[in-house]
């Protein structure tokens, strides 16, 4: 395999720099994190060719898939990340030859449910990966049997490997995520300020990270630490 950086499609698909295992706060998902880290390491023999992660929005499915790509690339392997909701209209020919990569990460699997051409292509890809010893990391909003796949053989294949459910974080966990992400940006975020952000802003993880991005920029601009009055002023709360 050629080594270096994860393969990027010429379709504007990019990995987020901040999507690493180190920046993922596991909370109740420590077992899932450990399993994904092991699966994404060439140093760990793969006991299964497929790892399936499922959970509701905001549980970090995309983060873990992109972190797996970063981690495997750091080991010199070849990884590919495909968000199927963005690529479904390109057609299943995108999956041709993907068994040649060390790790293939398919996100938003629910986007191809009911599309016979995609389901059949994924079924055959799974078989090729299994034969060649590749690794397939999948993420969706529901477990394989609950997704509503029309191809029964594909549904059964996806259930053969490791299947983990990601649990949402409680408020304390969300505060810890904010503090972790702030620290990685060089910001000091106290418990009181983290609680204030969570109590006054939107509670989804995407919205919380967007608020932190805004506050980071404001803090750099004004050279001001994050306090409740500062946050209140900048966010209009």
UniProtKB/TrEMBL annotation:
It comes from the Bacteria. One of its GO terms (biological process) is negative regulation of DNA-templated DNA replication initiation. Residues 171-233 form the Hda lid domain. It holds the Pfam family Bac_DnaA. InterPro entries: DnaA_dom, Hda, Hda_lid, P-loop_NTPase. Residues 17-164 form the Chromosomal replication initiator protein DnaA ATPAse domain. NCBIfam families: DnaA_homol_Hda (TIGR03420). This is DnaA regulatory inactivator Hda. It comes from Halopseudomonas oceani.
């Amino acid at each position: 395999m050629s080594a270096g950086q994860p393969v990027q499609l010429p379709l504007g698909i990019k990995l987020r720099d901040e999507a690493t295992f180190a920046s993922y706060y596991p909370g109740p998902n420590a077992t899932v994190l450990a399993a994904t880290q092991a699966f994404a390491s060439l140093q760990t023999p793969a006991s299964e060719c497929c790892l399936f992660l499922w959970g509701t929005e905001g549980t970090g499915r995309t983060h873990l898939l992109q972190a797996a790509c970063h981690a495997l690339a750091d080991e010199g392997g070849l990884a590919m990340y495909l968000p199927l909701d963005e690529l479904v209209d390109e057609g299943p020919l995108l999956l041709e030859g993907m068994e040649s990569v060390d790790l293939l990460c398919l996100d938003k699997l629910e986007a191809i449910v009911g599309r016979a051409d995609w389901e059949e292509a994924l079924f055959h890809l799974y078989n090729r990966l299994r034969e060649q010893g590749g690794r397939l990391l999948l993420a969706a909003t529901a477990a394989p049997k609950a997704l509503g796949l029309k191809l029964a053989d594909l549904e059964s294949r996806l259930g053969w490997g490791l299947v983990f459910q990601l649990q949402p974080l409680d408020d304390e966990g969300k505060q810890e995520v904010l503090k972790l992400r702030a620290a990685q940006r060089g910001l000091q975020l106290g418990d009181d300020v983290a609680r204030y952000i969570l109590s006054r802003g939107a509670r989804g993880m995407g919205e919380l990270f967007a608020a932190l991005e805004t506050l980071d920029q404001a803090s750099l601009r004004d050279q001001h630490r994050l306090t409740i009055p500062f946050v209140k002023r900048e966010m209009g709360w």
